[in-house]
Design goal:
N-terminal domain of TfIIb; binds zinc ion; 299 residues; 3-stranded antiparallel beta sheet; 9-stranded mixed beta sheet; single chain; Aminopeptidase
Amino acid sequence: MPLLPSDSVKQVAIVGGTHGNEWTGIYLVKKFEQFPHLIQRSTVNSLPLLANPRAILMNRRYIDRDLNRCFAAEDLTNPDLTGYENQRAKAISTQLLSEQSPPIDLIIDLHSTTANMGLSILVSGEHPFNLKLSAYLSQMYPAVRVCRGIQWGEVSPTLRSLVPLGFAIEVGAIAQGMLDAALFQQTEQLIYTILDYLEAWNQNARPTIPEQLTLFQAITAVDYPRDATGELQAMIHPDLQFQDYQPLRLGDPMFLTFSGETITYNGSATVFPIFINEAAYYEKGIAMILTEKQQIPID
Ligand SMILES: [Zn+2]
């Protein structure tokens, strides 16, 4: 486990449009490009970046493949991967880590979701600084929830995984290709609070943080019921729709078949589903992600 950054966190990338139809982050980054002073602090230099320009123009999640799955180290050095998003991943990696001088310390990757996730922080990796900052944000904004392990497995080939410090911000529920002013402003405020925290950190005015953090740790993904050809056999049950972060207990409704039959949760442990009915996850075979609600100490 790496140590806490002993000195300062000075270079921040604020990324929007990793998915080209998630407008909250795209329009925030466009705003920051137009008014750069909003994201500068005396000790923090912020770089606004639109990650997937062609997908943004087309108002699509991606052109060839999901950009947020293209950042595995072996893929970034694989010359045979020539799809648009693979090229973008290589260019972004070079820009943030080599061309940018000094290189980026922390990445804030802005996303939106059709699930009712409110303001969610998806922390990358295990770095204690990320948990400290997340604990601070959830103290400042009780509506903020913190999740970890959303891309499980050994490698997490997300854009934010390029550096140890940082996270994705997911806001919703918002349909793809549209804006919600209230969620736009809440996300904007969260970014300013992060930059102010980094400024205070750099000036050794370490803000007080709570001793514990409520963390929603991903356990597994659940797909929709499908037939042998992959055809959907059921929908999210109306009782579960928009119930992200609420407890799901043995016997609670999960899915409703097209003939009207309810399929219930049959696990013995109470879980907390998130990303329920995320539109972009149908193709990934994910109806929701089950999490465990944990209290973890912050030192
Ligand atoms: Zn996204």
